[in-house]
Amino acid sequence: MRLLVSACLMGLCTRYDGNANEDRGVLALAPQHVLYPVCPEQLGGLPTPRPPCEIVGERVVNRLGEDLTQAFSKGAFEALKVCRLCGCEAAVLKRNSPSCGKGMIYNGTFSGKLSAGDGVFAALLQASSIPVYGEDEIQNIE
Predict the structure, then answer these.
(1) What's the N-to-C CA distance of the chain in angstroms?
(2) Overall number of domains in the chain
(3) Sign of the alpha-carbon dihedral angle for 49, 52, 56, 61
(4) pTM of the entire structure?
(5) Domain residues for 81?
(6) 53-71 in b/e burial notation, b at 16+ Cβ within 10 A?
(7) pLDDT class for 112, splitting at 50, 70, 90?
(8) With CB atoms 3.0 to 4.6 Å apart as the test, which of 62, 83, 87, 115 could cross-link to 107 if both were Cys?
């Protein structure tokens, strides 16, 4: 299966703080699947590193209070193009992220607390009928 994967989970330094979230379980999928790394935030034009962002209502804002909704939306659509161009059948995304989180995301208070919701890219993929898995759900990939 062709899988679109959050680039940070594959060890690329694309996180907001310039680091990676390399996940050995995700990398272990490579012998059975073709993995395509993508970072919607970078595709939306955001630099790395960058101030952390969270979803507040219908907007994505950074810790400085700047509205980055447009960049997150642009990045989500660009990453969806990559998904389609590569023929990906599903995505493995970084949980809790304002772009890639599925089911739970940081609650918009920059306090480390979570609330129910999806990141901008995860929501777009799901609306496009692309299955989305968090890195802690890879055992469910069929």
Answers:
(1) 9
(2) 1
(3) negative
(4) 0.96
(5) 2-140
(6) bbbbeeebbbeeeeebbeb
(7) very high
(8) 115
